[in-house]
Design a protein that fits this description.
- The protein is elongated.
- 22% of the residues are buried.
- With 153 residues, the chain is α+β, with helices and mostly antiparallel strands.
- It has helices at residues 2-16, 25-34, 68-80, 127-148; strands at residues 38-42, 45-50, 53-59, 61-62, 65-66, 85-87, 90-92, 100-104, 109-113, 121-124.
- It has a 3-stranded antiparallel beta sheet with strand order 1-2-3.
Length: 153
């Protein structure tokens, strides 16, 4: 399905934090619906809700694009709730790596270490911030490997 490929690329762009100012409003709306969100429109506000997701996502147009700050909020929600891949209309968690999470008293941050990926670590002042950074790293690493021609082991 051609549409699914576009949605997968948009999801990769969104999760990778690339080109937040270049996200089509219609495309992000379609992606959120595909991830199980329901839309309600109030004036210029398009509010997306999903069972199991506490925060509503509010999107507004900026011409044909979505507002950058709202794209960042959408990314944070998708990462926080593990809405990171699309597979036949169902949400699937793409990350199958073991995470060792601990508090670093020396640095005053939460740290996540991924034993299967040497040198792959993320940190954050809160568990949510640490998780979001870890998700971005785990999403980008396979893309970087593909771009460099490396094989997965």
């Amino acid at each position: 399905m051609a549409g699914t490929g576009r949605r997968d690329r948009l999801l990769a762009q969104l999760l990778g934090g690339r080109a937040d100012a270049n996200v089509s409003f219609e495309a992000i709306c379609a992606l959120l619906r595909r991830l199980g969100f329901h839309k309600r429109t109030r004036g210029s506000h398009h509010v997306f809700r999903r069972k199991g997701v506490e925060e509503p996502l509010n999107l507004q147009r900026d011409g044909a694009k979505a507002k950058v700050c709202q794209i960042r909020q959408a990314r944070a929600v998708l990462v926080r709730y593990g809405l990171t891949t699309i597979e036949r209309g169902r949400r699937v968690n793409a990350y199958k790596y073991e995470l060792i999470v601990y508090w670093s008293a020396e640095d005053m941050v939460f740290v996540a270490d991924v034993p299967e990926l040497p040198g792959c670590m993320a940190h954050g002042a809160t568990p949510a911030e640490m998780e979001a950074r870890c998700a971005r790293i785990l999403w980008k690493r396979p893309l970087q490997k593909l771009a460099s021609g490396e094989h997965f082991g």
